[in-house]
Amino acid sequence: MRFVQERIERGLLDARIQFVFSNRAQGQAQGSDGFFDLVSSYNLPLVTRSSAHYRRSRSSSGLTWAELRPEYDRLVLEDLEDFRPDICVLAGYMLIWGAQMCSSYPMLNLHPALPDGPIGTWQNVIWELIRQRATRTGAMIHLATEELDRGPVVSYCSAPITGPDFDQEWLALAELDLEEVRASQGEDLSLFQQIRRAEYRREPYLILETLRAVAEGRVQVKDGQALNASGLPLASTVPPGLCLDEEIDRAMAADGSA
Question: Which residue intervals define the domain Formyl transferase N-terminal in the entry (predicted)?
Fold first, then answer.
């Protein structure tokens, strides 16, 4: 949020943030409290409804979270009924959106893998890339649907995970049992950390450049589809989505981050 808001304030993105929503409440966790302070510093409207508190309040009902979820989503929609955003961005939001939420707002979700890459958490993605001995990593923005990490792809970026910075790490792993390495070293594995950095440093630029593409009309989101400027589905490209590698490389170079 800081990355995008600062560029809005600098006139680098023709957009504004209408509101920020969190499924945590003030005082629930140190990390989210710090985020709320950041939102407040920008004078942005903050709306919160704790999903954890809601579940506890309904614990006596005997209903599962799946059964309670539609009511929780309905309450969230009521909380947000005064806002009319053109697009919403899910970032660090760990609840899978249900059908009612997906149909109410066009939601952009960040997933730390290429369009044809692994699904799941970023940790799972990296381990799968290592298992496959992949040559590239990346991230994508897709429309949020009820199907985890598999909504229509809007945009993506990629980065190599071979070459001088990686070859020694791949070589060191070649003769080892991956499951034993994962159990003994876990995320401290140097190759794991390097792959994460290669992808993670591009994430905020992917969000920014995707929002810029939407603001400029190069990407349209209509009726659950991601379309190009001509109104053709981006799903028809191979791989699907708008590749933003060039735009991200230029932006990172301008920031001295390349």
Answer: 66-163
As a whole number of angstroms, the distance between CA 221 and CA 227 comes to 6
What 87-95 contacts at long range (C-beta under 8 Å, 24+ apart), as own/partner pairs, is 87/211, 87/214, 87/221, 89/207, 89/211, 90/144, 91/1, 91/207, 93/23, 95/23, 95/51
> Where on the phi/psi map is residue 54: left (φ > 0), alpha (ψ -120 to 50), or beta?
alpha
* Host H or E run for residue 20: strand 20-22
Print burial letters for 98-123: b (CB count within 10 Å at least 16), e (below 16). beebbebbbbbbbbbbbbebbeeebe
Contact 213, 242 (CB under 8 A): yes
CB 162 within 8 A of CB 132: no
Q: What is the pLDDT of residues 195-208, one digit of tens each?
A: 999 999 999 999 99
pTM: 0.89
Give residue limits of the domains in the chain.
108-254
Q: Are 50 and 32 in contact (CB under 8 A)?
A: no
**Structure tokens, 238:** 């191979």
Query: Could you give the C-alpha distances from 57 to 20, 54, 118, in angstroms and in order?
Result: 24, 5, 36
The Cα–Cα gap between 99 and 146 comes to 6
